[in-house]
Predict the structure.
Amino acid sequence: MSRDSKTKVLTVALVLCVICSILVSAAAVLLHSRQEANKLEEKRKNILLAAGIYDATLPVEAQFSQIKTRIVDLQSGDFTDEFDVASFDSRKAARDAATSYRIPAQRDLASIKIRSRYKDVYLLMEGDALQQLILPVHGKGLWSTMYGFIALGADLNTVSGFAFYEHGETPGLGGEIDNPAWKQQWPGKKIYDAAGKLRIEVLKGSVDPASADAIYQVDGLAGATLTARGVSHLLAYWLGEDGYGPFLDQLKQGEVTP
Ligand SMILES: Cc1cc2nc3c(=O)[nH]c(=O)nc-3n(C[C@H](O)[C@H](O)[C@H](O)COP(=O)(O)O)c2cc1C
């Protein structure tokens, strides 16, 4: 067969394609467990970061051992042992008809349409006493669904940290939700007022420190009001009666114990 014959060129191309696809498939299969482990470590790191206790010099796994993971049934507001905490994935649960809940449009403050009926929550304990409760939250910004963790102190009303770990907002505009200067405004803010009304919000503009409402408010993002509004809305949803509200109420009243 001549070196430049069509059959030879096609045979070489075909053999190369087969070899490459075997290599790619083998890499995908062999690296799958490592990718899953990395994903879990990244998630745990973000939980520790939201709680403000991440130490870059120590292994994540060792630090995470002080955190207790539980699954909450959002409707009853109680813990459930129906799922394995190690493998539970609320994004997968939201895609499964048996575990998902379609949110009525008029109540869909976070614009997510569907959510899991169950959520993984993270408890930082000192002995039997709850120090911090870390809750996963998500909702639509301008371009993307923004995923984060909000950490609450032992009173279940004071924010101890809030950070997004995944979003597709524009760097320099909505992407400023990752700016440490903006994030550091959250610790100390209160979620509910004395009457139990949900008050936390991101303003359009700056917080007036002299205002009595400043304790519930965070500065807006210049040129990114739509992302900022998305942050307020997702907090209103997840900390409200259709989100963690029933669970937080029961925890405050001691009707469920961590
Ligand atoms: C290319 C481009 C990217 C933008 N990205 C964002 C964004 O990520 N988040 C956001 O809220 N607004 C973004 N905006 C601006 C919005 O369209 C809108 O003008 C802005 O949210 C209004 O906020 P302001 O009232 O503070 O100016 C973007 C605009 C352009 C042209």
